[in-house]
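Entry: DUF3325 domain-containing protein
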Amino acid sequence: MRDMLLQGAGLVAVAAALIHGVLGEAVVFKRATISPARLRTLLRLVWQAGTVAWIGCGVLLAAAPWMDSEPARHWTVITVVIVFVFAAGANALATHARHFGWVMLASVVVLAAAGY
């Protein structure tokens, strides 16, 4: 059961990351007027760096059940939980909890902690 919870957390993390990346490009940056162009490019790349990092975290959570090392599993889960607690908290704070993103990010935390 622990393994399934970690794999579920990984899937939710990847889904949240993909939604973050697609909506960022399709909604946020499509409407945003940012100049100069270099700054716009920088902000888009930083936005997508978060997307890639969350995908990596999701893959690590999904792979954690097959880690032969208990310390590796432990530190993987702890690190990912810290990252997603911060992300969920920042999202909830910045949007006054009116954005669904914090719920997805918090569910990664709950599933990962339950699978710990």
